[in-house]
Amino acid sequence: MNKVPVSRYTEIYRDLVNTLSGDDHMKNLLLGKHFSLTEEERNLRKEIERSKTAIDAARNHFEQVVDPTLIDCYIYELNAAQLRYQFLLRRFKSREV
């Protein structure tokens, strides 16, 4: 299988962004620009990302331990991180409406 050079993907991406010149919202999403977000919404996004990281960390720890006490600890930690993520996601979505 031939590898496509990264520069080709960059060209395709630029072409896609240029074709969306009339749709500023979609163009900003593709470019990762979120100008319309308030300070609180940006903070919520950061907290959501931190929650995802916490979920991944708890899952990794859980998969590595063999001690029953630590297994219980990481189960609780994983559940807590998932609940926090769900809460933050609901809060962010309710602000979008």
Short recap of the structure:
The chain has 4 helices and no strands.
What does this structure look like?
This is DUF2508 family protein. Pfam families: DUF2508. The protein is mainly α and about 100 residues long. The protein has two domains: about 1-35, no CATH class; about 35-95. The chain contains four helices and no strands. It has helices at about 5-20, 25-30, 40-65, 70-95. α3 packs antiparallel against α4. It is flat. It starts with 5 loop residues before the first helix and ends with a helix. The mean pLDDT is about 80.
Topology:
Blueprint (H helix, E strand, L loop, with lengths): L5 H14 L4 H8 L7 H26 L3 H29 L1
InterPro entries: DUF2508
Pfam family, one: DUF2508
Protein name: DUF2508 family protein
Task: Please estimate the helix content.
Answer: over 70%
Q: How many β-strand runs?
A: 0
Please indicate the count of domains: 2
Order of helices and strands: HHHH
Tell me the structural class. Answer: mainly alpha
**Distance N to C terminus:** 45 Å
| Radius of gyration from CA coordinates | 20 Å
Strand content: under 5%
- Stretches where pLDDT falls below 50 for ≥5 residues? none
- Average residue-wise pLDDT: 78
- Number of discrete helical segments: 4
Shape: flat
Largest sheet properties: none
Properties at a glance:
97 residues, mainly alpha, 2 domains, flat, DUF2508, DUF2508 family protein
